[in-house]
Design brief:
Blueprint (H helix, E strand, L loop, with lengths): L1 H5 L7 E3 L1 E2 L2 H9 L5 E3 L1 H7 L10 H11 L6 E4 L8 H11 L3 E5 L1 E2 L2 E2 L2 H14 L4 E5 L9 H13 L4 E3 L6 H11 L4 E4 L4 H6 L4 E3 L3 H19 L9 H6 L4
Parallel strand pairs: 1-11, 2-3, 3-4, 4-5, 5-8, 8-9, 9-10, 10-11
Antiparallel strand pairs: 6-7
Organism: Mycolicibacterium mucogenicum
GO molecular function, one term: catalytic activity
InterPro entries: ICL/PEPM, Pyrv/PenolPyrv_kinase-like_dom, Pyrv_kinase-like_dom_sf
Length: 248
């Protein structure tokens, strides 16, 4: 975790591309990114399963076991823990060699009870103290008050979280307020504002979320449509380049 944690305190925010399979992660590494995360939507959709439903535990663990072949730290989106015992899940991910996890407090159209979410984070962290735990606060997804975001963020840090992730937060004043409240704890946001501006506001990690996956499947369909209609197809790496992604 030390290497991964240090990346959150470098000169600029850690830009974390989110992969859904080995090839996408390897392509991100080849492009020069310093760490790779996973996207729960991409992993779920790639297996014909719904996101945020707690049903992709096996698929996520299988992917994690292949991603650790890459020469960069890997952090995994474990949704709300897949209904697994947090200590057992932590032990399995530690054995695999994962550097970090993302744990969310969203439960569909509501948030988990604060005490229960803190207990989940604490149990995971106690079982895997070397794993960087990024606690996701879904208040902005659910349009809840700003003070609830701060309350939950600080509670999760007290429970052992190493970072806080607030997807949907875009207001610059509110970003600065949360950065100040968190102090040395890194704030992670989605790539919804310009990267360098987020750095100026004090954000320490920027995740691309499901964007690369959604772009990829959109462009895949566009390539076939372009061929059929005689239009120019999107740029693509060669077969040989794609083949070398599996060599590590």
């Amino acid at each position: 975790m030390d290497t991964f944690a240090r990346l959150h305190h470098a000169g600029e925010p850690l830009l974390l591309p989110n992969a859904w399979d080995f090839a996408s992660a390897a392509a991100f590494v080849r492009a020069g990114f310093r760490a790779v995360g996973t996207t729960s939507l991409g992993v779920a959709a790639a297996h014909g399963l719904p996101d945020a439903a707690g049903v992709t535990g096996a698929e996520t663990l299988a992917l994690a076991s292949t991603l650790v072949r890459l020469p960069v730290p890997v952090t995994v989106d474990i949704e709300a823990g897949f209904g697994m015992d947090p200590a057992e899940l932590a032990a399995e991910l530690t054995a695999i060699g994962i550097a970090g996890v993302n744990i969310e407090d969203g439960r569909g159209d509501h948030l988990a009870a604060l005490d229960a979410q803190c207990a989940l984070i604490a149990a995971f962290k106690a079982a895997a103290p070397e794993v960087f735990v990024n606690a996701r606060v879904d208040t902005y997804w659910l349009q809840l008050p700003t003070d609830e975001t701060t309350r939950r963020a600080l509670a999760y840090v007290d429970a052992g979280a190493d970072g806080v992730f607030v997807p949907g937060l875009r207001d610059e004043h509110e970003i600065e307020q949360l950065v100040a409240a968190l102090g040395e704890t890194p704030l992670n946001l989605l790539a919804q504002l310009p990267f360098h501006r987020l750095g100026e506001l004090g954000v320490r990690r920027v995740s691309t979320g499901s964007l690369p996956f959604r772009v990829a499947i959109t462009q895949a369909a566009a390539a076939v449509t372009a061929y059929v209609t005689g239009a120019a197809t999107p740029a693509a790496m060669s077969y040989d380049e794609a083949q070398t992604l599996t060599i590590n």
